[in-house]
From TrEMBL:
Top-rank taxon: Bacteria
SUPFAM superfamilies referenced in this protein's UniProt entry, alphabetically: alpha/beta-Hydrolases
Protein name in the entry: Alpha/beta hydrolase family protein
Amino acid sequence: MPPEEREAIYDPATVHAMCCDYRAGLRGDRAADDADRAAGRRIACPALFAWSTRDDMVELYGDPLAIWREWADDVQGVPIESGHHMAEENPQALTTALRALLRR
């Protein structure tokens, strides 16, 4: 783990922000998602879902693109060879995937 990351995870403000983000996903964000689904709203713009190959996304949820196809009209996906922190662990692959989406 890089020293900057280690320093951040021991900073109480960082830990608080991380917990707030997780809490929002279970409360307000979830309520907004449920309301959108009930209203039949979908993501209309092109979307990219990138997942880490050394994380447990596929193990926990199966085909990650199948989940997003329930929400988005035009979703592309790409596995990124990395652990949980793909932007830090494989920035080149993530950049390549993002550029491909933005060129569409």
